[in-house]
């Protein structure tokens, strides 16, 4: 299975991401928008691993969130990977209880390391991918200012009450995300 661990965005918050994407699409029509049913905040991507690893991954998540209460993050800004000026991916950064997101991520990384699984060593920035580009694209200062304007509205905080283990299944050239387990926060 192709596993990843993520914070799923609740359905009540998807309308604001749809609105952000609509404004983004007006500015950049060639951007490939992320399907709303795939909007999430990835904590760890494991790639292809043996199916029997599922139970151990659930245990790692359970241990990572043990005693942790639900919390909120709020969409705050748009950025890109590898950077905002030449993005392959555009994403929404979040503010709020970022310390909890980072703590959960570190606990999950420790658990994955104990199983000798690969852990992404790059600096982790909590983000929600909203669009991608199939060819080279650049953002000039004017477009960057317009992207900033998209995020000036008061956006609704996202209530994080669980962590999910997902599998990503290739289906006719696209990936479908199936939730395998949901671990609730207190």
UniProtKB/TrEMBL annotation:
Pfam families hit by this protein: 2_5_RNA_ligase2
UniProt xrefs under HAMAP family: RNA_CPDase
Enzyme Commission designation: 3.1.4.58
NCBIfam families, sorted: 2_5_ligase
Superkingdom, taxonomy of origin: Bacteria
Annotated motif HXTX 1, positions: 40-43
Top enzyme category: hydrolase
InterPro entries assigned: Cyclic_Pdiesterase (IPR009097), RNA_CPDase (IPR004175)
Gene3D superfamilies for the chain: Cyclic phosphodiesterase (3.90.1140.10)
Protein name: RNA 2',3'-cyclic phosphodiesterase
Entry's transmembrane regions: none
Catalytic residues of the enzyme: 40, 127
């Amino acid at each position: 299975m192709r596993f990843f661990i993520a914070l799923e965005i609740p359905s009540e918050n998807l309308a604001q991401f749809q609105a952000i994407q609509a404004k983004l699409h007006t500015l950049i029509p060639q951007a490939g928008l992320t399907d709303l049913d795939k909007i999430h905040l990835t904590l760890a991507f494991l790639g292809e691993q043996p199916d029997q690893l599922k139970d151990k991954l659930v245990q790692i998540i359970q241990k990572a969130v043990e005693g942790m209460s639900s919390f909120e993050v709020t969409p705050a800004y748009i950025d890109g990977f590898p950077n905002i000026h030449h993005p392959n991916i555009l994403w929404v950064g979040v503010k709020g209880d970022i310390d909890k997101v980072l703590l959960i991520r570190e606990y999950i990384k420790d658990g994955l390391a104990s199983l000798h699984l690969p852990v992404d060593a790059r600096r982790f920035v909590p983000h929600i991918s909203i669009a991608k580009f199939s060819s080279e694209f650049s953002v000039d200062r004017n477009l960057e200012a317009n992207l900033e304007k998209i995020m000036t509205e008061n956006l609704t905080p996202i209530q994080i009450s669980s962590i999910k283990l997902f599998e990503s299944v290739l289906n006719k050239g696209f990936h479908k995300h199936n939730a395998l387990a949901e671990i609730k926060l207190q």
